[in-house]
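User: Hi! Is it possible to get a structure for several chains at once, not just one? Here's what I have:
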Amino acid sequence: MLLRHTPTEVSERKALMINPAKTCQPIGAMYAALGIHGCLPHSHGSQGCCAYHRSALTRHYKEPVSASTSSFTEGASVFGGQANLLQAIENIFTVYEPEVIAVHTTCLSETIGDDLKQIAHKAQKDGKIPEGKFVIGAPTPSYVGSHVTGFSNMVKAMAQLATPGTPKNGKVNIIPGWVEPSDMKEIKRLASMMDIKITLFPDTSGVLDSPLTGEYKMFPEGGVTMKELKDTGGATGTLALGEWCSADAARWLDSKCKVPCTVLDMPFGLAATDRFVDVLRTVAGVSVPDSIANERGQLVDLISDMHQYFYGKKVAIFGDPDQLISMCEFLRSIDMIPVHVITGTPGKAFEKRIREITADMPGEVNVKAKGDLFQLHQWIKNEPVDLLIGNSYGKYVARDEDIPFLRWGFPILDRQGHQYFPTVGYKGGLRLLESILNLLLDRKDRDEPEESFELVL
Amino acid sequence: MTKTKKMVQWNPTDIKEEILSKYPPKVARKRAKQIMINEASGGEAASSEIVANVRTIPGIITMRGCTYAGCKGVIMGPTRDILNIVHGPVGCSFYAWLTRRNQTDAGPDGDNYIPYCLTTDMQDQDIIFGGEKKLEAAIREAYDLFHPKGICIFATCPVGLIGDDIHAVARKMSAEYEDCNVFAFSCEGYKGVSQSAGHHIANNQVFTHLVGENTTPKEGDYKINLLGEYNIGGDGFEIDRILKKCGISNISTFSGNSTYDQFASAQHADLSCVMCHRSINYVADMLETKYGIPWIKVNFIGAKSTAKSLRKIGEYFGDEALIKKINDVIAEEMPEVEAISAEVRTRTEGKTAMIYVGGSRAHHYQDLFAEMGMKTISAGYEFAHRDDYEGREVIPSLKVDSDSRNIEELTIEADEKLYNPRKTSDEVKALEAAGFKFKEYDGLNRDMDNGSIIIDDLNQYEAEKLVEILKPDVFCAGIKEKYSIQKLGVPMKQLHSYDSGGPYAGFKGAVNFYHEMDRLVNSKVWSYMKAPWQENPELTATFVWE
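Assistant: Yes, the chains can be modeled jointly so their relative placement is included. Here is the combined structure:
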């Protein structure tokens, strides 16, 4: 038993978090910033934060993740980090030559009250920012929200580049939220199948899935460009996928640039993808091609073919709110039963949404925002499940309780594929279902007594 | 860039200039002092001075981490039955959760908290109103759930800024629980210039609060402490296997697969053997001053180094039976190692490596590469001090700057009752006269060739330049560096956490490493960088089939 000290009896904890289902804001900001073309993320604080975030992102994406730091020591912590950041900006533009530096704060620089806007302004005034280059910034205090909040804050900083009054350009802004490079690519593919011109931001496809060629590019081909970001103010509208990840940026564009926005769930699974395609078609004024309807039909076909293996299976799931909401809806749509649902990210609205989605279940869902894996494990001990879905840290629970385990979410440290194979859209739905089916059927084949072990399933 | 385009005959001075040419003048001046063309070899005294343990330049993409990482992640993390609570926002605790590959055997008592990540998850109201009450409540909750022997508290950046007195909370809780030792580490990330400061802070607190707690003598012959061995990928298991086979009792490992009781009993050992000099030398010195336990430097990375280190331990104890046993064990283990090394050598001979890790591994691993006929052409440390490069004798000449000054130096005195010099001064003199070296560490420079390039606190740009110019056959560093190096078509081996491999220490570890290097430097994948049409892009006017 790996988690041998976890008791079955659930006791209330008010102060101690054990095995968190979230991490801190800056890593989300760093990931989002990598979705801008030619951008070097910069961590304004002591250098350990940057090292940890780069390590975690590198382990998940198996790709180089470049980011710089203000390298605070005690002096900067006492006297403020302005001198460090000014020096950093000058060094970064000289040595790495990015198009843009995206600065995010840490709990250290937030607590001492460094003002990113003022420092960037000073850098501009002092001539430390070369012509045509940019420094953008987002506040990401680690003691508020989670990594999802940090992602959202950096995406909002991207939206804030938009200029009010930009002439209409007929494009649709899509804010995909914290999904994989493969998912971002899939969203672009769906839009292009409908012949809709979009600006996707952030867009980490092409950045965190780059090929091995014998050359290293610190700034690979992919990512949304600064020009495209400035132009988002002229879009027909904005689709924000995920309330937690994307809504703030979209609402800012709506209120400041009069770009109307619709906030949708992330397009995981059948219903959420349906809504995404339907709204996108409506805002762009196009019709959906048969090729997309065909993909949808294939997903429905797989559900019908294999429904007997999904029906009534209990699931425990943890991850980020936007992803969990769509995934729980998908699980319900195939008659699986998400009995335990936990996110580490705060937000009471999450619990409400999950309760709504699971209202038709035979029993009641155990759901908690600001929860942790220790609690999830205790719930599972009390009410066992047929499947566990979550990031790599779930493998300890899965092994101890002998539960089939689907790796999905962030971070995935011990498997590959997430950066290449999407789980959004109808195609992504097919992959999710195939993965779940394989887990359940492998398990069935393993456990079935000899007399009922069958070739055809 | 493909292997065929290998540039040759770069003069080291030109390489250094090429690297520095990209920097703004101020940065170039500073980096020039941290990039050294080695002049010391063949046992000569180190003649060139390198600047080390100084601040990283803001904006330069460094390999370094922070003080918290050194304290919690490196030193305290691998102890299985102490509960570690990180006081701060969630991230710091999350990132140090199971990411260092410290293998652990839960032992007969079954206490193993390593898969648990505990944090006070500070929120903005804790930053505004202070987090001491929350920390106290968290310790209570942790104690009620786990009933551990010890609880360690780690401060993160904001805790130092808002002034939470974690030591007072720890004292209070320790007094409350008779069976649980609660103590704290002021290891805020911004202290010091790298992980190194965190090591020092961890050493101080472990020595103050833990070492010496168990007064019951330990059974066993030839009792040693193994300092600076973290059981990455199971290294400690292999070293323990060898020690046991030789009849040497390992009282405590600082800290890999270690337990509360091991630390608490360290004063019962008769010799401290220091592996990672940088992370734990402070405890070795303090054990000697307080209890009279001498220390020696050992290296269990590489089969020959392992044999040498075992013989050194034998020589220290001076017991014929032990010396014979050690020689027997070496004789038994070496043939298999040598056979595999000879076989692998046919494919690794003459290949080159670059090593940029930690505060001693960049040195240790050169022996292992040498056993395969591989040469280390460039190396350096992530968080070393000058003595790690130039040898321990430069310590008196080290300048103490403000970043080092804020790390507490404990004043240790001989224990009134327990101080017991393990060797008389005559015995020490006799050993030294025979060439035995106590408290000595040669440093990396002396073992490297003239003209090799030694760089302190290497950064991503410099790594990329070096690889482009010198095209090593393998590059060793950490996870952050892994994929940018591999994009250049050069295999990269992590020597902090070993990727998926290990153990690499001891005899079996050496064999593992030979196989791993053989795989890496001879893998076919590195020949696939270009597609056939990219190698030969001329187009013909007609279809070949026509």
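DSSP finds 17 helices and 14 strands in chain A. Residues 76 and 270 of chain A are 51 Å apart (CA to CA).

User: Great, thank you!
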